[in-house]
Amino acid sequence: MNGANLDDLIDLLGRWASGRGPLYLLLAARLRALIDDGVLPPGQPLPPDRVLARRLAVGRGTVVAAYDLLQQEGRVVRRQGSGTRVAALDLPAARTADGVPANPLLLHILHPPDGVALLTCAAPDDPPEALTEAYAEAARGLSGLRDIGYQPAGHPALRAALAAYYTGRGLPTEPAEILVTTGAQHALTLLAGLLVAPGDTVLTESPTYPGALEVFRHAAAVVRPVTPEGLAAALRERPALAYFVPTARNPDGAIMPDPVRRRLAALAAEHDVPLVDDEVCAELCFSGGTPPPLAAFGRGEQVITVGSLSKLVWGGLRVGWVRAAAPLVSRLARLRAVHDLGGEVVSQVAAAALLRRLEEVRAARVRLLAARHEHLCAELRARLPSWTFEPAGGGQTIWVRIPRGDVDAFAQVALRHGVAVPPGRSFDPLGGHADRMRLHFLLPADELSRAVNNLALAWAAFDGTGRTAARHTLIV
């Protein structure tokens, strides 16, 4: 990078060090924003460590740590002798052992590969008839409506419906304790924006939802894994928040027992630390029942519940919410108003109509998912007996372990056989679980069978046993 370009970069970085937290996280956060906004385009060389450190008047270790963090996130590429460059947009679904793989969900939404069975994006693609009917009902309600439509906290009808929903689950709730968002990912982003400063610690399970890890990393937080058993000790270090998925956990479909839920809520109250309960898949338990949210066990107002209809109804229905203490909801609404003044109204009114039909919609979705879960498990046991997994208690995914090698490398072989799988390291804040992958069971039975067949062929090639393997037609 020549002197002029270096000067330009220094100008773009601006007052990068004016925030709170370690300097390397602040520098990484500013560079991340420049990369994500396209200001630093793919392939753009970045200054050598020593050069940038000298111009910024910081230690070389600060720049090295910032670059290494961005490499782990897949935003830059560092090679011996070639320096550091902004990564290409069309990165593969898995990265090499140099760092944590980029979130495959985001990669395949932004750049979907052609002719590939995407076992990476776990969201239903078959909206039920109830959704069409709910939108028709919402549209009829627009006639004669006199309403400006700007409602940062959410439409009153949906806030009231969600308050009734949680009250019915044993958590008394008022509409003022509900904030409607554009999906659960938006809810997590707002919470991180309000509660997390650069350098703050965020506690998560491992494995956990990779979209949440992306949000916390984007906030320049230090993300640390924690177990329910280790939460008490971790909370004594005053993290900004803790994040758990206790019901039908993404990625393994596990369901947390009630005694553990009660302990988590009590610890949050005792240490006065916000505890985020991600309930996006909570209504997808194969038992047919829905466990109480963590806040139902709480003493105080530290438990924050996040939910959406994207997994229960349809991924394209971008309606989510936060259930929290009214003062926090008010602060979130003010923050949300800065971004977009409020969500789209017709979808919110349709969501309120869907909540009135929740039992019907849930029963149909759970019945379908349970059948497809059983089919996928049976296919894996038959075609890939060396792979191990625990059947899910709910949700849309299972967590699979391969007997040798790492899934980052296997994912590339699977992609050549027409199947995209998300490597386990995307689900670990420290990049562990290299021998795991998440598989969803949202496809119809014949497509699941075809995907497992191709995974078996890919495994034979990857494991060195596929010299005589040949593709064959499946009869299902």
What does this structure look like?
Residues 21-89 form the HTH gntR-type domain. This is PLP-dependent aminotransferase family protein. It holds the Pfam family Aminotran_1_2. Keywords: Aminotransferase, DNA-binding, Pyridoxal phosphate, Transcription, Transcription regulation, Transferase. The chain has 476 residues and is an alpha/beta fold. Helices cover 42% and strands 12% of the residues. The chain is built from 16 helices and 15 strands. The protein has helices at residues 3-13, 23-36, 49-56, 60-72, 104-110, 129-140, 156-168, 184-195, 210-218, 231-235, 258-271, 326-340, 345-356, 358-383, 407-416, 445-463; strands at residues 45-46, 76-79, 83-86, 117-118, 178-181, 201-204, 222-225, 241-244, 275-278, 303-308, 320-323, 388-389, 397-401, 419-420, 436-440. The strands form four sheets. Strands 5-11-10-9-8-6-7 form a seven-stranded mixed sheet, sandwiched between helices. A three-stranded antiparallel sheet has the order 1-3-2, with helices on one face. The protein has a three-stranded antiparallel sheet with strand order 12-13-15, with no helix packed on it. Helix 15 (407-416) packs across helix 16.
